[in-house]
Description:
By secondary structure, the chain is of the alpha+beta class. Helix content is 24%, strand content 28%. The two termini are 33 Å apart.
Amino acid sequence: MTYDVIVVGIGGMGSAAAWQLARRGQRVLGLERFDIPHAMGSSHGVTRIIRLPYYEDPAYVPLLHRAYELWREAEAATGAELLVTTGSIDAGPEDDALFQGALASARLHDLPHEVLTGAAVNERFPGYRLPAGLRAVFQPQGGLVASERAIVAHVGAAQALGADIRARERVLGWDADGDGVRVTTDKAEYRAGRLVLTAGAWAGELAPALAPLAVPERQVLAWLQPRRPAWFGPDRFPVFNLMVEEGRYYGLPVYEVPGFKFGRYHHQNETGAPDTLLREPDVADEALLRPFGERYFPDGSGPTMALRACMFTNTPDEHFILDHHPDNPRVVLASPCSGHGYKFCSVIGEILADLATDDGTTRHEIGFLRLARGALNGLAERP
Ligand SMILES: Cc1cc2nc3c(=O)[nH]c(=O)nc-3n(C[C@H](O)[C@H](O)[C@H](O)COP(=O)(O)OP(=O)(O)OC[C@H]3O[C@@H](n4cnc5c(N)ncnc54)[C@H](O)[C@@H]3O)c2cc1C
């Protein structure tokens, strides 16, 4: 069975890559070890934040502009609601990197934005109860992406263009030679000209070069029932990133699950192999999260509606890895993106399709996401 490109891992990134490849007329095979979608990886939990004034690095902003366009194209192609605008709040102490980084990105890229005090945020968005002196960047284009629905939409759009997508088929290994790649699964063997590895938290298993650079970490999300539901819908409640004395937290309005949703970055700092990290949330997870809701969103913090565990996969500098395999130019790698990658899936799908077709170049500025960057300290070099 021969294809132009095989995509391994049909989660957030892989489903987008499959669609972008199919759009270019490539014969695509997508292989997924679990279901489509499923709750064992990094993309479940209904929603993800999308925001433009990127405090992590302003170099992401041009990619974000394209990500927005492609999310809208995917909506037009499938009829599914994938991106809902709510506005975004990036807030923290005035001298903190979160607020300063968001402000610098907004200014550098001329994004519409307002700088507000915590008190002004609380007045405008009554679900919030921030410390009055906190500083916030409000950006009106922020919002949420319906992450599991987007996987289904991308897969459906790829299939409509002829892509062959197979779930419950685990890739056991691959090898590449001058003519192409061979992929072995627990059911069959396939050949293709190129290979795209979008295996999420399992990236290091299929590309050992990534193992020291992509470390899975357990996260837990909480959904709490709002006491004032009108204040916690997408029309009144912007998505947020907050730096407070308890740590760095993020949250979203009520959407599908009957609770407003939030989590703490690096939750309990639990790293490990993806198949061994605990998937079932417990009382310690809830006890860590609820006090944050009760303090900063008291009208949102009624009974717990849901808890879910999920995986970040962190690089040393918390930036993504998008590149050709260091030993095999026919193989393209995507790391699962250090806990902030979902919003980029649409544009990463396009970049992976660029890297896996024609001469393997892309018009997107991804130098800061390549394996050879200095911050990776040679960790990715060949053994
Ligand atoms: C709790 C939490 C909150 C987050 N919040 C945000 C947010 O608000 N905004 C944001 O932008 N990002 C956020 N992220 C990050 C974002 O969700 C991830 O960057 C993104 O989901 C990663 O997508 P992926 O395709 O790499 O991984 P996945 O969607 O997990 O896909 C990888 C796929 O590869 C498959 N696979 C692995 N090995 C094999 C194999 N051998 N054979 C076949 N298939 C295989 C897996 O089963 C899986 O389906 C969050 C992440 C978490 C965990």
